[in-house]
Amino acid sequence: MIAPPRLLARLKKETIIMTSRLITFLGKTHYDNTTYVYKDRRQETCYVAQALGMFLKPQEVHVFATPEAWNKHGNALTQAFSSAGLVEPTFKEIGAGTSPDDLWDQFRKMLDSFQTQGTVAFDITHGFRAQPFFASAVIQFFQSIEQTPSELRVFYGAYEARNEETNDTPIWDLTVFVELLRWSRAVLLCLRTGQAEGIAEPTERLGNELKKQWALNGQQGPQPSLARLGKALREFGDAFTTVRTGSLLSEQPSVSQRLLEALQEAGHDVTRFLPPLAFVLKKLMTLVEPLAGSPRLSDSRGQEALQALAKTYLSMGRYAEAAAILREGWITRYACALADCPGSERFSDAHRQAAEKLWQEQDPDMARTLAEVRNDIEHAGFRAHPKPPQTIKQQLERLIEQWCLLDAVQCPTEISRDNPDADWEQPIFYRIGVDQPIMPDEPLPLLPDIPRGALVVVEGRAPIWRYGMAFHRLHGSPAGAVAVYDPRLGAVVIASHHPKWREGQVLDVSPPMA
């Protein structure tokens, strides 16, 4: 579909701009006269370089050609440029490509021509043999070392698409494919390393190209936009590289969830305009989907998200991050709602310490093993006998696998993680009373079995410090609320993260008869 005149006029103002350098090719073949068409501009000539010169008004023109090709066309091309009031083209001699030395010489000369700070228009219409390959290689090389011109446009005069009745030949702007390569490399770097800092600009460039494609195709469907995707990628990359677990996994919505939604939204635009890019988006979604888990990192979904994060860090060779998530994730299995929400205002350091203490009490061997692995990495080898790299990698792989299998069976304190707010009809009484004065190091009774979310009532005649010890121990339990029994009042709730109870609430309950 042809874009309407008003739209074409706007596109003309936006995209037909002054170009610093036009790079083009000439061959030995005969070129027929045709009318080259670019947007609403027309130019009759046998040389596509002249047409692009008229459309883009370059300050410099570099023409790559063999001596034979230049002898055949050089004078005519120079005269055509002069007659049109354009800058005189500069001949860049290249060999016929019959030897490796010729090929390397072509590559070096193309590299030299690309080194400019302004806008470069690259015409690949008359490239032959290895020249199109070299053109692509040069572009990718400069993009890889981040020294491409401030703007690069790629053009192709599609003589094979010529209208035989009018003799009109379209000039295709292939820049979108260049931006596709740039963006794909940035995304793949993110997939391999988690680094997303360099992805914002390529995403913006690709989004701009999609908008141009949409405009030139008659504004079919909604206008494409990758702005949301660019922002989501930056946020995800920042959280991932700095190991902000709460932002990555449990924040509502988490940066992983926001990125997943942005990828799904961008997928519709990419499928319409750049179908091959759908493969890259799918790989990104494969990375992010397992991380879009649960606000409760201690429940089954939250644990799966933590395990996926640890595996991701491990697969990228980020062993320090993998070790940190492994240890903190294992502790989180023992955490209550105030200790499994990193980065949240309701997160409690005391509850987290209680969860870690409970873990160390119930699984001391694993706690010690994980601490040794983490410390070996964190001390950066400043030990007499640091572990070899392969040993660390193998240990992390084995421990993460153990974590996954253990969580798949059952957490030690887990009774109902799928229903953390379950209503337990009967309170759980924890007796700490004593019959005579005791010393502060006298151990507390063992905790009773506590269903997740249950009300625990501490009762008994005992010193205040003994109650403090009991509260500290309960911080790492699955209890939903803690109360103190007073024979005159009943049970007074002193701490709660369960909607059924509130702090200060007085409950009409009594301990069972001994």
How would you describe the overall organization of this protein?
- By secondary structure, the chain is α/β, with parallel strands linked by helices.
- It has four domains: 5-173, Rossmann fold; 175-292; 293-414, Four Helix Bundle (Hemerythrin (Met), subunit A); 428-507, no CATH class.
- It contains 17 helices and 13 strands.
- The protein has helices spanning 5-15, 48-56, 67-83, 100-114, 131-144, 175-193, 200-216, 227-241, 245-250, 255-273, 278-288, 300-315, 319-332, 349-362, 364-378, 389-409, 464-474; strands at 21-25, 34-38, 41-45, 60-65, 90-93, 119-123, 151-157, 168-173, 428-431, 455-459, 481-486, 490-496, 506-507.
- An eight-stranded mixed beta sheet has the order 3-2-8-7-6-1-4-5, sandwiched between helices.
- Strand 4, helix 3 (67-83) and strand 5 (90-93) form a beta-alpha-beta unit.
- Helix 4 (100-114) crosses helix 5 (131-144), helix 6 (175-193) runs parallel beside helix 11 and helix 8 runs antiparallel to helix 10.
- The longest helix has 21 residues, at 389-409.
- The chain is elongated and about 115 Å long.
- 36% of the residues are buried.
- The model is unreliable at 1-15 and 408-423 (pLDDT under 50).
Short structural description:
This protein is α/β, with parallel strands linked by helices and 514 residues long. It has 17 helices and 13 strands.
Main features:
8-stranded mixed beta sheet; 17 helices; 13% strand; 514 residues; alpha/beta; elongated; Rossmann fold; 4 domains; disordered N terminus; Four Helix Bundle (Hemerythrin (Met), subunit A); 5-stranded mixed beta sheet; 13 strands
